[in-house]
Specification:
The chain is mainly α and 355 residues long. It is 48% helix and 11% strand. The chain has 15 helices and seven strands. The protein has helices at 37-41, 50-54, 61-76, 82-110, 118-135, 157-180, 183-189, 197-202, 208-211, 219-222, 243-267, 319-324, 327-331, 336-346, 350-353, and strands spanning 13-19, 22-29, 144-145, 148-149, 286-293, 298-305, 313-317. The protein has a three-stranded antiparallel beta sheet. Strands 1-2 form a two-stranded antiparallel ribbon. A two-stranded antiparallel sheet has the order 3-4. The mean pLDDT is 95.
């Protein structure tokens, strides 16, 4: 299956060994999209690498920006202005919602739910509108800066965001009516691609896929970064660890992200959005690892500085790469059609698999 296949979500190949329609073995084949981002970082300044992080998980670019700039800020020991911290939270959670919308829509489409594709993509467009009015771009955003954000939000942003938050529950209700409660969708997903909690942990699975196995592990709660410790939100969990729960957990997480955004919007202070940082950034010699709760799991950046204006070494811990490692186990024993549902429910982006 793949590397060019509608259900592989990019250039990814899975070698399936079949007994009739039953999958008895799966081998992941990655590398078709190799970009050499980590090597490229060694020849870019710390600021110049920010746009490259957009290209990792391009469905959640703000989160990639955030993880990287916070890692560099750790090296520099920079204090980020309060307003910038709140704007970062708003943008990061909008990015998470947008990413989850794509997963929900794509999974429905992979299972031939053509109509169900539209509502989540319709609502995602509203988020992209918010991004565009803030930074002039809809997908590769490069909004975060080392020390804050690139620009303040325009006057029309807050009314548009409030309108989006007000309409969000109705959109989720529509998705639940079309997909979640659909008996054909349930028949295709319940009990499919199951993974238990112990095995998921052994494979290093994180994010919504782990929480669908019953463990309420979310870095925003257990190891808060930025100002996440100021917000009240729940960490939804489900217990079956199957494709259906991995779908539903993302809808539940969208609700919690909206709660966080509403609080950040309420408490958004006035003030600068960028700290005073040197024009040429030269962190002291040293190394740092920083991780955040990305849309698909734990996203980490390991940065080594030799005191120059460019990273000596940069390594990216990407959730899609790790979560994909469990796919052969999850798909074995099911049918080819089940493998399609299972892969869709893991929610991978090849941009961060082949980094």
């Amino acid at each position: 299956m793949g590397p060019q296949h509608p259900s592989t979500h990019g250039v990814y190949r899975a070698v399936l060994t079949l007994d009739g329609e039953t999958v008895v073995g799966v081998r992941n084949v990655v590398g078709y999209l190799h970009r050499g981002l980590e090597k490229l970082a060694e020849d870019r300044t710390y600021t110049q690498f920010i746009p490259y992080t957009d290209r990792l998980d391009y469905l959640a670019a703000m989160l990639n920006n955030l993880g990287y700039v916070q890692a560099v800020e750790k090296l520099l020991e920079i204090q980020v202005p309060e307003r910038a911290e709140y704007l970062r939270v708003i943008m990061a959670e909008l990015s998470r919602i947008a990413s989850h919308y794509v997963m929900v829509a794509s999974m429905a489409l992979d299972l031939s739910g053509w109509t169900a594709w539209f509502p989540p993509f319709r609502d995602r467009e509203k988020i992209l509108d918010l991004f565009e009015m803030t930074c002039g771009s809809r997908l590769t955003l490069s909004y975060m800066r080392i020390g804050g954000v690139a620009a303040d939000i325009p006057p029309e942003f807050i009314p548009a965001l409030q309108s989006f938050l007000k309409e969000l529950p109705r959109g989720l209700e529509e998705i639940n009516g079309l997909v979640t409660g659909n008996e054909i969708f349930q028949a295709r997903c319940r009990g499919v691609g199951k993974i238990d909690l112990e095995t998921a942990l052994a494979y290093g699975v994180t994010g919504p896929n782990l929480r669908a196995c019953g463990l309420p592990f979310d870095l925003r709660k257990v190891q808060p970064y930025g100002i996440y410790d100021r917000f009240e939100f729940d960490v939804p969990t489900l217990n079956n660890g199957d494709a259906y729960d991995r779908f539903v957990i993302r809808l539940l997480e969208i609700e919690q992200s909206a709660r966080i955004i509403a609080q950040a919007l309420r408490d958004l202070p006035e003030g600068p959005v960028l700290a005073k940082v040197p024009r040429v950034i030269k962190p002291p010699e040293g190394e740092v690892y920083h991780q955040i709760e990305g849309a698909k799991g734990i996203l980490g950046f390991y940065v080594v500085s030799d005191g120059s204006s460019k990273p000596y070494r940069l390594h990216i811990h990407s959730p899609s790469f790790v979560n994909l490692g469990a796919f052969p186990l999850m798909a074995a024993g099911g049918t080819v059609q089940d493998a399609v549902a299972t892969l869709a429910s893991i929610d991978i982006v090849l941009g961060e698999v082949d980094r």
